[in-house]
Amino acid sequence: MDYQQLAKRIVQRAKKKGAQQAEAFLEVGRQSSVRVHQGQIEDLTQSTSKGVGVRVLVKGRLGFAYTSDFEPAALDHIVDQALKLAGAAAPNKLNGLPSGKDLGRYGDTGPLFDTKVAELPGDWKIKAALEMERAGRAEDSRVVAFNGVGAGDHVSEVYVASTEGLSGAYSGTYVYLYSMPVASDGAGLQTGYWVDYRRFLDDLEAPESVGREAARRAVRMLGAKRVKTQQVPVVLDPLVASSFVSDLASAANGNAVYQKASVLAALKGKRLAGPHVTLVDDGLLARGLATAPFDGEGVPTRRTPILDKGVLSGFLYDAFTARKAKTRTTGNASRGYNALPSIGTTNLYLEPGTKPPRELIGEVDSGLYVTALLGHGTDPVTGELSAGANGIWIEKGELTYPVQEVTVAGNLLQMLQDLDGIGSDLQFRGGPVGAPTVRFRQLTVSGE
Amino acid sequence: MPRASASPRRAPTSQLAPPMVRGPSAAPLLPQPLIERLLAVAMERGGDFAEVYVERTLTTAVVLEESRIKSAQTGLIQGVGVRVISAGKVGYAFSDDWEEPALLRAASTAAMIAQGGGAERSFPVHRAPVPSHYRVATPLMDVDVSLKTALLSRADKAARAFDSRVKQVNASYVDQTRRIAIANTDGRYTEDVQDLCRMAVNAVALGKGGELRTGMYGGGGRVLFTHWDTFPPEAVAREAARQAVATLGAVECAAGPQTVVLAPGWSGILLHEAVGHGLEADFIRKGTSLFAGKLGQKVASDLVTVIDDGTVSSGRGSINIDDEGNPGERKVLIENGVLKNYLYDGLNAKLMGQRSTGSGRRESFKHLPLPRMTNTFLAPGDHAPEDILKEVKRGLYCATFGGGQVDITNGNFVFEVSEAYQIEDGKLGRPVKNAMLIGVGPEALKNVSRVGCDPMPDPGMGICMKDGQMLPVGVGLPTLRIDNVTVGGTKVA
Questions:
Q1: C-alpha B380: how far from its chain's center?
Q2: Which end of chain A, N or C, is less surrounded by CB atoms within 10 Å?
Q3: Which residues of chain A are within 8 Å of residue B16 when distances are taken between CB atoms?
Q4: Which percentage of chain A shows pLDDT scores above 90?
Q5: Pairing of strands B462-466, B4-5
Q6: B316 dihedral zone (left: phi>0; alpha: psi -120 to 50; beta)
Q7: Closest to B73 (Cβ–Cβ): which among A37, A85, A446?
Q8: What are the phi and psi torsion angles at B288 (to 5°)?
Q9: Does A224 touch chain B (CB under 8 A)?
């Protein structure tokens, strides 16, 4: 089936039936994944999927409908549904598709598709998963079980078309490995988690390395205990730091800012952190998981600094919110076919510093190195952070004993001011959000 | 929206009237001969068990922002999943293409998990009766969308009228009419229609010096649309607004161990996190939960009896059948502090020599079933809620809650408290901000020292996440006192 033609036909039909503007967003994909358990396949899943969403505007009224059924009658039906919903919606003069001037030329994404991933044989994933399990057990005899060990890949295609002259498509590949071993010392159980997720097979960490690192992370937590309640320097490893980075970006969501429901709303142009702190959303990052020529409504993606050398320099927008806020879209409309576009991030990362992580830890007299967080992080409205933490206690610059059942708490703005060290080890671990090791001068650790 | 998750790892409108779905008496989702053919193909390489899962889900969603209906949408997701089990290994394939060749292809893909040749056999299925814990008189999808947008406009007005400090209101309404059919090589064929709706209101209040506070409330369930006559959007909105305004001027929360008193209702997510996930049979079978091997042992205070009940009338987490076709059940998991039972899906039950407790649930045809909770409650105790509070000299009263999360292996769980007050001499003092509770499941349950006589279910807003699969669940708790809980805060004494 020619999906680009199909998207155009849906748009034409909507227009013929009375829509002033119409857009079709279509996704097609195939996935495969495997999990193993004790040297055997636990489950093997394969599938294909597809779907299309239709957005229409009738006299400033918005309607949207989607379906995974591509039979001609079903496609006609969703166009009718979208038009009917537009009839029931309130008019808003800000409603509308991105205009010609927002659409423009696509930037250079570099390659997004790896034929090695697209043609990856099924038994490669089985072997890789078995290798991770074996490596985890070989790393340490205290590894006694796994919450899950698996590998998978997917191939996806996106097609868009609209009455505003939009016509675009891209396809991409993704491959991943993960391991969640459980270690026991007879007295208690601890788990570890390590993952790698890439577009290109050659970028993927070796299965043995993923398996061993996951095991190390589980074993080193054995015997974890609470520490006293105190205010100390806190170091976040890159996996944990990426959730801090995501929290910062949700406070930079243009809609939250417009609604004054963000701790960052009134601070544009202000210095929030030292000159070593730069936070960027980059939809064109080479080989990035979220790299794409256009966003969820066909607008070219780009590089948008949120914090530029410590100064709050920009917020993230889709076309509708940009119109409300009297600014331009930043190409940050994020969506699947079954949802309207909403503001999201692409490849989001904190730029690395110069110090190796060992040095950041080495400079701490007494503090907490956090390797896992529990909870949902920072409230973007108030900027307050409170989260459960697991990690290792730092004493005189050395990692000592494992810590659990404590919380870390602080405030986003204060944390930005206190961000006194950024490691050289930027990594995108398991997703399109990247961070290096980061250190805060002081957070409250709650324990005994 | 609050969420409860077992592991760290994501809707839409109206009087849709497609030809195939029309309430419980509609024509079968797939013709029975085709289903039987799929089972035969799935078993052609000699599996031990095969199952065909058919789903068709219609969703309506309405969103209000800045006092306007921002969007209204509707959508259809449908597909078929085929599962084959061979020597404990699972093959799974699904297709959202409803055409026979695509479905046969999915069945042969799933069949590949078995290695044998196997002769072609036939697997006739027979329709089994299912219980009825919720009514679908007029499917929610058939209710006119203008009635749904009207709910949100009423909520918006009520929240803003509650207090002039309420500056921002966002509201959403989502409903789903989900039709499933499940057939397996045991010959069992079951069908269910599961209606579900939820409204949520978020309010932001602005206080002195630019202080911002938020409130969130919502509800719903497997209910008729008339639910909103008795649970009006104004009440939902006023509660969200009340929370936002009540917490203005909150002081820093003291960090460290404290006696805490939990308000009844939605606080049940404590139970969901502290014990529920750790009792799910997949973790038990693999030995990765700290509750593995502890059946018959004391894991909580005598006052603690925990029940998971899929049969609650109209409950958000209720199921006539689970996603393997087994009836929803009421299970006593912990009785007077002693661990009595785990939550089993079919596969883990078989591998462990047990029977399914009707706990095999999945988000959609795109997912494998996992052992999951339904509605999880703590049985009521003897104490009057006001006495529980009066007895506490100093502590923390937790009135409303965000979400929670648990690490089922070491038992560490967190529980976000969105509205909390200091307790001084048995009375509520000032509101505190940014509080969180952390504990280890069994330890926290051993420290339960008072259980109120005021059991209360949550209003119907729970979403549980496990292995990337989201499911509706219910929770419930009477007023509860727990001693020596680590409270996460910013203030150090």
A1: 21
A2: N
A3: 81
A4: 96
A5: parallel
A6: alpha
A7: A85
A8: -105, 0
A9: yes
In chain A, positions 364-423, which contact chain B (CB-CB < 8 Å)? Answer: 372, 374-376, 379, 381-382, 384-388, 390, 404-411
Amino acid B120: pLDDT: 76
Q: Which of residues 133-172 of A touch B (CB under 8 A)?
A: 144-148
Q: Strand locations in B282-364, DSSP E?
A: 306-309, 330-335, 338-339, 360-361
The alpha carbon torsion through B200, B206, B210, B211 (nearest 10 deg) reads -60
Scan for tokens 């408290």, then name that residue: B417
Give counts: helices (H), strands (E), chain A.
Answer: 11, 21
Condensed to tens digits (0 to 9), the pLDDT of residues B410-420 reads 999 998 999 99
The pLDDT, as a whole number, for residue B13 is 21
Residue environment code for B89-128, b if the CB has 16+ CB neighbours within 10 A, otherwise e:
bbbbbbbbbbeeeebbbbbbbbbbbbeeeeeeeebebeeb
- d(C-alpha A47, C-alpha A5), whole Å: 24
* B337 close contact with A: CB closer than 8 A: no
Beta-sheet pairing, B338-339 with B412-424:
unpaired
Assigned token pair, B18: 């497609």
- Residues of B with CB below 8 A from A409's CB? 253, 255, 434, 436, 488-490
Window 324-363 of A, Cβ < 8 Å to B: 338-340
Pull the structure tokens for residue A202: 């050659």
The answer to whether B400 touches B461, Cβ cutoff 8 Å, is: no
Helix (H) or strand (E) holding A442: strand A438-446
Entry pTM: 0.92
If pLDDT is split at 50, 70 and 90, which confidence band does A297 have?
very high
Residues of B whose CB is below 8 A from A53? 75
CB of B272 closer than 8 Å to CB of B404? yes
Which CATH number applies to B4-9+11-246? 3.30.2290.10
Distance CA B193, CA B23 (A): 7
Which of A377, A414, A387 is closest to B436 using CA atoms? A387
Q: A45–B73: do the CB atoms touch at under 8 Å?
A: no
3-state secondary structure (DSSP) of residue B350:
helix
Within the 253-292 window of chain B, which residues sit less than 8 Å (CB to CB) from chain A? Answer: 253, 255-257, 283, 286-288, 290
Angle value at C-alpha A334, between A328 and A335, nearest 5 degrees: 135
State the Cα–Cα distance between residues B290 and B342, nearest whole angstrom: 13
Domain range summary for chain B, segments of one domain joined by +: 4-9+11-246, 251-488
**What is the percent of chain B where pLDDT is above 90?**
86
At residue B261, φ and ψ (nearest 5 deg) are -120, 125
Using CA atoms, how far apart are residues A222 and A224, in angstroms rounded to an integer? 6
Is residue B244 within 8 A of residue B205, CB to CB? The reply is yes
Q: Which residues contact B477 (CB under 8 A, 6 or more apart)?
A: B262, B264, B265, B267, B268, B270, B271, B377, B378, B455, B456
Which H or E run contains A50?
strand A40-58
Token pair in block for residue A28: 């097609």
Query: For residue B4, is pLDDT > 80?
Result: no
B378 three-state secondary structure: strand
Kindly state whether B160 is in contact with chain A, defined as any CB-CB distance less than 8 angstroms. no
Rounded Cα distance, B328 and B213, in Å: 40
H or E stretch covering A410 = strand A398-411
B115 touches chain A (CB under 8 A): no
Decide if A437 contacts A425 (C-beta within 8 A): yes
Output phi, psi for B122, to 5 deg: -115, 150
Domains in chain A, start-ordered, CATH in brackets?
Answer: 3-103 (3.30.2290.10), 115-152+172-219 (3.30.2290.10), 224-448 (no CATH)
Distance in angstroms between the alpha carbons of the first and the last residue of chain B: 33
Q: Count contacts between A and B (CB, < 8 Å).
A: 268
